[in-house]
Amino acid sequence: MPQPELSSTPVKVVRNVDRERFELYTDEDPGEFIGFLAYREIDPQTLELQHTIISEGFSRRGFARTLVTTVLGLIRDDGGRIVPTCTYVQDYLSRFPQYGDLVADQ
Asked: Would you state the CATH architecture of domain 11-102?
């Protein structure tokens, strides 16, 4: 099964609950904002993943894939589920079916 190729740039993901999104930063202090994956909490265990946005200066370098891979890992670790309405996440799941078990039954 293919594994997602992640960005070689060290990054960190921060869950911003107030803004309902997972934010991606360069792993520096302070980190530079790269982009985010917006979500809506459907219930305490299920997040609707709505859009993946990467800042123009960071586009086409694997950061969206890195962000989605990291977020799906966090959700899996928490025993959570997803409803992927984001087209990028939908495409990601078709390329990396090993994350398909996270999709909530509709």
From this structure: 3-Layer(aba) Sandwich (3.40)
